Structures are given as structure tokens and as C-alpha cells.
Amino acid sequence: MPHRATRLPHIKILWQRAWRYRSAGLGFSLAYGFVFAISAAVFLTFLWWNTTGTLAREVGQAVEADAQSLTDRLDQNGVPALIQAIQDRLDQDVEDESLYLLMAPDGTRLAGNLHAWPKPVRNDERFYIIKISRDGRTASAQLHAYRLPNNLHLLIGRDVRGRDMLRRVLTETFLWSWVMVTALAIGGGLVVRGIFSRILTSIAQTTAAIAHGDMRQRMPMVGNEVDLVAQTVNKMLDRITRLMEGVKQVSNSIAHDLRTPITRARNRLEDASLHAKTNEEMHDAIDRAVADLDHITSVFDALMRIAQIEAGARRAAFETGDLVKPLHDIAELYEATAEDAGLHLAQDLPPRLMFYGDSRLIQQGVANLIDNAIKFSPPDTTVTLRASLSGDLVRISVTDQGAGMAQEDLARASERFFRADQARNTPGAGLGLSLVQAVAQLHGGTFSLEPLQRGLRAVISLPSNSNEKPPAPQQITEASPSAHDADI
Q: Helix (H, G, I), strand (E, B), or coil: what is residue 396?
């Protein structure tokens, strides 16, 4: 016989192989079938125990009632009446289930259908279930002995062959029922495994296709609860697709839009290095190159702010407060800029506007909208900042009276680095509305552009309250946005 130590590696290898080919669906179905079978076994066992116990209690109660009746007959009319009562009961027992034996003090049999006192019955404190011989056959009987006055001994019982037969029938019925229930549990487990396997297969096929570069693949809808998983996965894939397209767009835009200022700064520095004759010419070239590089730095800073907002990092600064003062402050900040452009900046703000979120981010988003409105509004027109509470939504809008935007440009206005044709010659990099969109999404709201008969209305719609509290609020200090910050 091999030593135990030599068998351990083989056992370990077998276990590793079994674990390698493990199946989550199989494990789930086996657990389902096991729990179902055990539950059925417990239920059927309880039914069997309760049924057989009820039959035994009924026999005991019948024997006790019979003994009390015979004792009363003895007390009232004596031994002859008792003997007659026993005989009457035997005559009326059509099913031949009643058992009686009345014995005198000297052991003489006085009445009953039992010929001798059973040896196992020795006291009168409990019931006995024994085998007795009757009419040449052996039967099970439930007996109880009673000590009567005058030292008489009475034995009363019932033939429980019928009960035993019923118990066997119940036992066989419950066993077969359990076998059938177990078979159904196994079948149900296999069905559950099939459903589980189809769900996982669908997810695996979808993710495998995406892993090979097919971002159009989506989980199919089957019309049941599995659609909840499919919808969640498809929404996740849609967001991943949008993010990847955004990354691709940003990469292309950075390569296209930043190449010009970088090349211009390099050429200026190279030209100054080769042709500058005075320190003033050299300093002027360096200053212009620094201005180009500052513009590039501001673009990257704006991209980082948008990325932080989209990642939810700024949610830690959420708090409940009045939004009217921050909006009024940003409007005052831009009043001078509007006056220099020959515009009037009007405010339509309520006395109080409670809001849960980051008021500084809202300020920065509104600053971008006001800055855009001032850039593209003709002189002697009005830019209006308006805020209101509509139901559970805080609605902030900036309306101008400019030329507006083409319908095809409205759908792309919030894309990073997108600039409409009329904005090509204005300062900026096309990131302002992207930041507004990110701020609105961070607060669980929306950002939209509404064309008017004259001008354009930019609307930020935000929920006034949020049930999602930040896990660990931190104090964040940040300066209020300036006109330079909005120029992105």
C-alpha cells in the first residue's frame, strides 16, 4: 500500500484539475438543487411525523376514554356490569380492532378477547406497542394496563395493523415524492444553469468582440429580467465608446490645434536667434513665444479640469447653499467686460435659490457661457443671466441676441476643441462648453443650447437636491473664475 505522503500530490493534482474546470453556473445550479431537495426532505419528514403522531395520539385518547368509561361502570354497578360492558364493546367492534382483558386477583381471566396477559406489560404508567398472537396470526397492538379497585387488572388496547400499514404507505409515498422533487430540483437546477450560462455567454461574446476592436457590439435584449443586465452593460459600453471617441477626438484636436502655436513659438524664437539685432527685438520675440506657450498651458489646464470633473473628483466639495450670490458675483465680474463691448448685462435672479453642489464649478460654467455670449453678441444688445427653480430643477440660462449657431453646429457645440466657423477668429480653444457640459453631468443635470429667433440661449438644468452625499467631504479653496479662466 503506497504511503500517504505519496498520495498527497496525486490528490492535489486532481483537485487542481477539478478547480480548473469549475463552472459558476454548475455550482449555482447544484446549490439550488441541494437547497430545494433538503427543503423538500424536511417538509415531507414533518408531514410524516405529524401524521403518524396524530394517529398514535388518537389511539391513546380512545384507550384512555374507554378506560374511564369502564371504570365508571365498575364503580356504579360492580364487576358483573364491567364484564358485560366489555362484552358489549367486543360485540360492537365490527373491525375487530379493540383489545380487552380483565383478570381477577388470582390471575383468572374474567372477560376480553385476549387469552393471556402479555409478558412485556408490567406497569400501568405508559403505553406498550408489542406483537400479540390473535386467531393464529401476529399483529401489532398498542396496550395500556389499569389497576382497578378490588385488585382487578384491566388491559385495554387497539390493534394497530391498519396504522402500521398506513405508516408504510405514507413512508413509501413520501420517499417517492422526495425522489420526484429531487429530480425536479435537479432539472430546475439545469434550467437555471442554462439561463446563467446564456447570460455569461452573451456577456463573454460581447466583451470578446469589443476586446478585438468591435465597439459596435451590444448585448441583445431577450424580453425578461436579463435585460436589466444587458441594459447596464450596454450603457457601460456606450459610455466607453463615447470616452474613446472623446480621447481620439482630443488627441486629433491637440495635434491639429496646438501644432500651430507651438510651431509659431519655435519659429519666432528661431528667427530671433538668427536675426535679432537688439535686446528689444529679442525680448519681444521671447514675450510673444511665452504668450503662445501660456495659451498652450491654459488649454492643458482646461483639459485637466474637465477630466477631474468627469471623474467625479470634485464631488467632495459638494454642499448645500444659496446659489444666488455666486451667480450675482460672476455677473458683476463681467459687467465691465460687457460695457467695454458695448453690451448690457442683465440679471434675473430670485431672492433665494437653494442648491446642493459645488457653487464654484457652477460659477466657472456660467462664466464660460457669459464670456461666449459677450464674444458673439453685436453692440447695443443685451446678455441676460437668468436663474429659476422649476419643480426639483434649478434652471440657469444665459441668453444673447447674437447671430446664433447653425443647427448642425448645435449638436457638436459641447465637443472638445469644436469651434464653429464664425468662431475661428475669436480667442479660445473650444473647451468652454465642454467644461460646462462636464459640470452639468457631475451634478446629475443637463446642458443644452436653444436657438432663438434672434440669438441663442444656453441652459444648465440641475437637480436642486442630491441623495448622493460625498463619502469624505474636504475643504477645497479655489479662487473665483476670472475672465481669463473662461477664455478656453
A: strand
